[in-house]
Structures are given as structure tokens and as C-alpha cells.
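task queued by scheduler; priority normal; single chain, no ligands, no partner chains; default sampling; output format set to C-alpha cells
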Amino acid sequence: MAVTPPGDDTGDDTGDDTGDVAVGTGLTVTEGSHPSATLAVQNAINVPFTRVKFTASSDGDVVVDSVTVERTGLGADNPFSGIVLLDENGNRVNQISKTLNSSHQAVITDDFIVKAGQTREMTVAGDMVASLSAYAGQIAFLSVVAVNTSADLNATLPLTGAGNTINATVSIGGVTLSDGSLDPGTSRTKEVGTTAYVFTSLKATANSNEDVLWKSISFNQSGSAAIGDLANVMVEDEKGVKYNPIISSDGKYYTVNFGNGIKLEKGKNFEVSIRGDVNDGSGRTVDFDIYRYEDVVFKGLSNGYDIKPSATEVAVSADDGDFHATSPRYDAYQVEISKGTLTVSKSSTIGAENLPSDGDSVNLGAFEFEAKGEPVSFTSWAMSITTTDNDSGGENGKITNVTVYDSTGKVVAGPLDFGGGAAGSTAPFTMTFTDSITVPVGKNIYKVKGDLNSSWETNDTIALSFTPSTAISSVTGGVTGNTITPSPSSSVSGPTMTIKAGSLTISPAGTFASTTLIANSTNVELGRFTLSASDSGADVAVTVGRVVQRTNASGATVANLTFRDGNSPTSPALNTGSNRVNPASSPTETLVFNFDNAFAIPKGTSKTIGLFGDLSSTATSTSFYQYILHNGGTAVDWTVKTVADANAVTESATDVAGGGVTIQTSGGYKVAAENVIPVNAEQWTYAGQKGVTMNILKWSATSEDLAITDLRLQLDVTGSSTRAEYEAVELWDGGLMVTRKIDPFDVNGITDITLNVCSDTGTTPTAGCFVIPKNGSKLMTIKADLAPIAVSQNGVGGELLGIDYDGGGAGNGKGKQKARGLQSGVSVESETHSDVTGTGVMAFRGIPKVRKCEEASGNCAALSGSAVNGEQPLIRFAVKAEGGDVKINRVTFIVSTSNITAMGTQLPAFKLYSFTNGNYMTNATGNAAIYFGGAGDYTKNYDSSGRVIVRAIVDNTSNYTAGQYKITAGAEHVFELRGIFTDDGTAGGSFTTTLLGEGGEVRPEVLALTGTSKLLQASVALIDAEQRCGGPNDATEAGEVAACGYAKKPGTAASSTAFIWSDISSEATSAGNTNTINTGDWMNGYKVPGLSSTGISHTKAY
């Protein structure tokens, strides 16, 4: 018989407790829907043979006491390890599989209930042994030959189902059990009250034969704990799904069906745990074992048989958390249920405080009582009170109504009175509470309070203490009734309380620094003060405050002085209406503030109050105001009293001058270049791009918020761009566009922009205006839409573009830069009277963007592995054409070696390969296009550091026009430098290959940005320093031809032009133009995005 735990009826009628229900008088036993004949394979369990229906009469439930099964047919008994009866849910009725006796019979004595008028269909099944080879081909039957019940039996027996054939060749799946990750891993002791504790966790791993379903598990609770000692026991899988177990009548088996089953794919694992609450049972144990492997049921999804799992077994050792060859097959770690505990400690909820003499219900201390396992009750608590007498005058301070409160404020003990010790004595006095106190499970705070009489004097002290193990007595567990000894056995002391009179210290706040304010401002802070009751024994309150105003101007220019609880203009006002103060014209005056209500400062705390007022429009610049607490060395008097009893308190005022206020009639502002990369490091972009950042200006304001109203900008004079190259200009405040102007510049390259005056403080951008915050700064970004480079368009390839703040230089911007003060309303001119320039951008029809290939896969995957003999990739990089088509004429590399013999005269055959086009860009070697080395002089192929210089120039082959490799707009081409190497036998070497940028990051010396010799781009012959020996800036060296090549300056790679490319802008000037290496639209690698002066390197081991 089996029952469900209280409140968790599964509704399956399997073993519901009979209780006092009526007993039925009849039971009918008939054949059920027998399973089809099948194979009984080795190591399978729960193989079905016969199904039987049990029907109870309608007059009551019927208990079936036993069922006798007989093996019949030509098969032997030995193939069966045991016989089981399965209920309608597939659960085993008999927890212990029954073996066949000498009469070939097995008697299943585990009873079960059939509800009145209902039918239950049970299955007689067999568990098969691990090896059936000796019995293969036999056919066995399992027949029900007897049913034992106290009711009248109506049955025609025997009932026989399918004859199954013994089989030794079918290989079914296997499952291996092991302890799970959540298993406690050791025997533990848990208190009554422990919740959701994991008693046992098991992991199942499917073998490689077939996927399986985990159908059910049955834990054997072999410990001494009873059903009622545990609560909320459930099985939970690793996905968090919870299952309520069916509990056997003796409380020893907890069985769970996993619904449709938990699927384990071949080789995969899954974990389930059994957990619950410890509700009772001190001194007893809980131990959730697996008694038999058959108690953990799996079903193969390919062959359909229930599978008995296995495990790695060890020698038997008590409570070892291991698997064994005998039952219990898994001996889980047990839990010993301990009695409840009570631990006491000092609580931080009440710290050391100053207490007033004659104070009522003052804090004396707080203690934390933590009960574990069960509520804990006690009826005696002895508490010691230790006091000190500051002046040893023998006064006897008394404490009455000493009371203990719980966290809800409820009185749990007391009140008691402490009468004080002998005169001058500091020996502890003990009070004993005899109230019954029950401490709930968990942490509980108990506060002790009392009333002080007037005999206590300043700096007397009071402290509570007790030793829990001896001071708290008659302690019992609320569930178990066991006697409990509280811990610790050492003294627990509360905080030391000190008697203090009421006090208040007033001082200027150090957080208020001298500042500048604008005339005609309202509700501005003029001073700030700290009111400290940190050394007070009582809460105090201020009703009247006084400060001294000092000024070098008329005091009457300040009005409506108001103290506020805080330092914000919106902080609550302490004196309003007629209590506001308006000073006279005297340069020094004591001002009296009558507060609307008493302003309280709790003891042990401090508060900051700000002094606010209005400044007259007649206030003059450099007027100065300061508010202090002394007048001629004499402190002003504040009216202060204690909150509880209204006793007068004599405050102390610090004779320290705080920050002062200087008046200005208006603010001022400046502008400077913001050093932000890349704006202040010349960048390249492509023509026709929108919203290109041209400059970033940093604006700074003093004394008040200032709104820019007038702004003049001019074209940058470093270059020689024209107005037509700019289609629009935008001003940005962070992520907000303030304004936009189309066709912005006049014929002189000037644009004047007018902005609105906004009321914001500059913290939130507003379209149409730009506000600089008081005594702060803000960045303005200048952007532009650039004209395209195309036929009938105004863009110019290689043009340096820039937009500057015109402070009075070429654009004569002085007087054209203005802002309006938001406080003063005054319009002021900028204090910056010089131009503020950025470094601009250089625009091309299209630009190349270079990067090293470092992706995980694809054409631009990073190179990996070591070099071997033969052709080797040395570096892989990509070039993308942004904004328009580009052409490449030349790229240059340096190849250096480490721990490798110098390459000498036998240089590797280097080639540059295009992954994108699938061919070589440079097929020639030697002193042709790839080297430019002098004939017969191999030393000219090295730089001064002995590194090989590899100059890759696009060949005039069938693939490419001489010197031109084209990349269409938006496309990215991937390239690889390759070399053919022969191992010199030196181990541990490497090659480092660097794709070079332009050393020193300089433009070609033949180019000029401005003037009559303006030349923005040029032909390859002029751009390439190695072809320019007879050019305009170099004299032809003796014995060299015009195309002198590398012989010009041998041994220095820096003298070479590393990267040569074209934006093909020559084709934009006329529809009939064609770009060649001789057209004037080529450029070197200066500022090519992604290609720095130090280049891009890759090292490869050899």
C-alpha cells in the first residue's frame, strides 16, 4: 500500500490510505488487455507478460493482500531475476522484486487498494538477468494463479497473458548512474527548520546504443526519521521542474513518475535531486538511498524496453555516498537532525549614542537572537548594567522602566528598575527578566530602552552585557521540547552610552566656495552653514538664527534673505513671508532670522542650511558680500532648545570666515580648439560625404550661463578651398543639431550664423540655441556637407578643407561673436579675438582604407602556422575603396629575419597576390618591378638595418594596365605578399614582414596646398621619390638616368615612397578624360586610413 504526502494527493489511487472508509465485500479478477508476445531480452526490466483487472464492489474499498504469480510454459526460471506487479502508472506495487521459488511461483505480498466500484488494471512483469545466452529461444509465460483478499473473490484462475521468447542477441541501451553535482558530498547535521535541503542528487548518462527516456525513480529513505519529520519533499530535475513523490505507507519509499519521461540522447546526461524541509525529528536521521538499480527506470527509444541502469561500484562502507554490488545499491550520505540552537550577538541597529540626563525611553542597547531549527523559548534573562561616574562625585544615576522590545515594537520583557549601585561604584548591577520570551526561527533584534533620572551627569556612561550560556536559562526548543544551551559562553556587550547635555555647533560650510554672481539674479545662494548636533545628548531645534553681513557696497542691494534646508534654490525655506530679511544700507549688519517653525537637528547628526537671496539690478561690479557668525570677535546668538523638554541650549559659533560672493553685471566667454582626435589631426574623407566633422570648438563661460547669439565662421586659410566646395554647414551640441545653413559661405569665405536665446541652463541641448553653462564649458561640433568630385560638380581631389572660428583674423570677425547672459540679460562679445582653427580634412573622389587581415575565417582570415620550404604567404591585408573607385600603383614592404642567415645575393622571389581577383599583381622578380635594385649590386635591396626592401608595383601584364590596380567603390580587395624560401638549416628563426606607411607622415615634397604653385596631386613619376631624381626638387646624381630608381639613395627605405594610389579624379573633370599613371591625380600613403607611419606587421616562424 502507498500514500501521498499530506496535501499532495496525486489522484492515481495508488495506495491511498484506507483510514476509516467502508470495506468492500467483493472483488472480481478478470483478464486485462494482455500485451502482445515479444522478446524478453537480457538486462531488461519490467518486461510485460500478463495484464489483470481488479474490480471492487460498490459497497466499499477492497484491499488486495497478495498476488501469486507462476512461471509456466517451456522456459526456465533462471532468465528471471525477479517478478514485479506494475500499477496502471507503471509503478511497482512490490518495491522488492520477487524471485521464483521451487514451485516456479513468486508471491507479491505488498498490498494495494481498489476503490469502491472502480477497476484497476495491473501488469505482471519480469526483470531479466544480464546474460540469457543459455536460455535463448525458450518461451515463458507468467500466470496469476492466486489472489488473496478479505473480500469475496470472484475469479477464474489462472489468468495467462503473452508468451515471450527469451533472446540473447538484441542489445538494448544502457545507462550509468553517478552522484550529481548538487549532491551534498558528505554526511551533514541539519537543524529542525532547515528548508529545501538537497538530500541526494543523481546523474544518469546514456550509453551510445540508443536514446532513452528516464521514466521514474524511487528513493529508499533508510534513515530513522518518520514521514512527519519531513515536509515539502519533492524531486527536482536540473531544469527546475518539480515532482511530488508518492510515499509508501511505511514512509520508506518516495517514488516519482516523470510524466512523458525525460529524454537522454546517446552520450548525454541528466541530473535529478530529492530535497525537502526538516520539520521535526531531533536525534533521528534521513538517508535517501537507491535500494535497487530497478528502482531507477529508463526506457530505450529504439527497442522499447525498460532498462536497468548500472554504476561504478566500490567496496561497501557505511554511509559513503557510493554505489555497491549489494543493496542499497547507492548508499547516499545521511543527514542527522539536530535540535534547535540559539545564538546571541550584539546588534548594530543601535550604536554608541549620546543620551540626555532625565531622558525618557532612551536606547540602552540592542541584541540579535538567532534561532535555528525551531523556535526557542526561555523564561529567565539576567542582564548586567555597568556605569561610570565621570566626576566620581558619588551621584547615583537611576534607570527606570527598563524594557525589552522586539522588532515590531512590542514589549516582550520588563519593565524593571535599576536603582544604581553604591556611591562611586562601577561594579555591574544585574537585572533579571522573568518574562517568557519565544524567539522565532531566524534572526531577531531585541532593543532595550529605559528612562534616565536627572542624577546623570555629562560624560557618565552606561553599558549592557550578559553571557548567553549562563544568563539565559530555562531554554527549550519550541518543537522538540529539548533543553538548549544558548551560545556563546563569553560575554556579549552592547554599545557604551554617554550622558551628554544638549549642544549645537554652528559654522560656515566648507563646501561653499567664493563665487561670482550676476546682478539682478534671484534666489541665489549667498552663504552656507553647518548645524552640528553630533556631540549632543538630545535632539535640538533652532527658532532664531543670526548672521553678520559684510559688504563693500550698499547692503540694501541684497533682499529677501531666506535660509533653506539644504543648498538648492528649491530646498524648503525656513523663513518665509514677513520673516524674510532685507538688510539696510550699512556695510556691516547683524541680521536676525525668525524661523517659521522650530528647525530640528537630531542628536548625533548635522544639517546644512543655505542662505539665499535676490540681487538688485543696481548692484555694481566687484561688489562683495560675506556672511559670518562673529561681529568684532563676538559670536552672534542663535536661539536653540531641546526638542523633548524645550530646555535652552547654549550654542557655539565658529569664528571662521566662509566663502564670499562677488557681483558682476554680466558674464564672459572664450573659445578654444578642442584637442579631439581625429578632428585636430588632419583626416582624409571622400568628396560628396554629408555631415563631415570639420572642427570642434570648446566654449567656456564665467559668472553666468551664456547663450551664443552671433557666430562668424570662415574657410580655413591653411588650404585654398573655395565656397563652392561646401554645400552646407551644421552646428551640433552633442547629439543634437542646433542649426543648418545651406550654401553657407559668401565670396569672401565668411558665414554669419544667428542663434536663439534659450532659457535652459546648458545641461539639455535645445535646437536653435547653444548655451554655455556658468563656470563650465561645452563643445560645439562644426560639420559640413562636401561637394562631390564629378563632371559639373565643385569638389576638387586632394583639397584641404577646413572651417575656423573667425576671431578677428582674415575674416575680420572681431565684433561678430556675441552671447547673451541668461541671468543679466546683457549681450557680451567674445573674449577670444584670434582665429581658432582645426586641422581640417582632405577630400578625394574616393579613398583607400587599409587593414590587416585578422578574421577567424574567409579571404581576410589571419595567417597562421610556420613557414616551410617553397612559396610562403608572409602578410595578408585588405584595401577597401570608400566613397568612390581607387587605383593602386605601388605598395612597399620590409622583410626582416631573426636567427636566419642573411639572404645575401640569393633573394627570395617575392610576389604580390590578389585574393579577390585570383591572380598575381606583380609577376616579375629580380631588379624589375618588384625590386628596383641596381643591376649587379644586390646591397641596394637592403636598408641600413639589413632588412630586405620589397617594392611591389603593379606589372604591365595581361591582367593589369601598367601600374594600375583598380578597386571599385565599396569593394574590399584582399592581398598577400608571398616569397619562395629555402631552409638554411638554422632552427628557431622567423620572418617579420611590414606593409609600410609613409615615414614621418608627410605629403610628397612636390605638392603644395596654396599659392601659385598649388599642386594637390601629381603623376606617379612625381609622387614616387625614387623616380623623381631629376624632378623639381632633386638634382640628378652623376651617372644616373632620369628614371634613376632606387640607386638615388640606396640603403634607406624611408627615402622611398611606400604607398602610391589614385582617386581617379582626373576622369571627373571631363567625360573624355582617362586616368593613367601620368595623370595628375596620384597621391602617396600620407594619412591613408588604417596605414600609420609605422606600418602593419606580421611575424611568421620558420
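post-processing summary
- The helical segments are 468-471, 1020-1023.
- The CA atoms of residues 787 and 793 lie 7 Å apart.
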